[in-house]
Amino acid sequence: MISVSWYAFNITQDFFDPFYPGTKYEIGEGLYIGWCSATLAICSGVCLLCACKLEQPEPTPYMYHQSKGTVYSAAAPSHRGASSTYDRNAYV
């Protein structure tokens, strides 16, 4: 966008200068296409920035505690102290 605007400024400055001896150009379709494409690029960058927000990773069922070297599970605790070894929670 900066280069397109800079070129448009130079064209406008040369066009309105009565003492400019060279060929005078006018603002054409190429500049409008450049401004539109730069605007779309900025808008898509903003959309990408908003879509890629920083999120915390979801907690997994197994959390590893590095300081103690143990693994904690979020699963239900086992029933090993039951009187029967084959209760309704022990599936084969």
From TrEMBL:
Q: Where in the cell is it found?
A: Cell junction, Tight junction; Cell membrane
Q: Name one GO cellular component term.
A: plasma membrane
Q: Which residues cross the membrane?
A: none
Do you know which InterPro entries this protein is assigned to?
Claudin (IPR006187), PMP22/EMP/MP20/Claudin (IPR004031)
Query: Organism's domain of life?
Result: Eukaryota
Per the record, membrane topology reads: Multi-pass membrane protein
| UniProt keyword terms in alphabetical order | Cell junction, Cell membrane, Membrane, Tight junction, Transmembrane, Transmembrane helix
- A Pfam family (short name) is PMP22_Claudin
Primary localisation category: other
Q: Does the keyword RNA-binding apply?
A: no
**Belongs to which family?**
Belongs to the claudin family.
- Which named protein is this? Uncharacterized protein
Q: Which organism is it from?
A: Albula goreensis
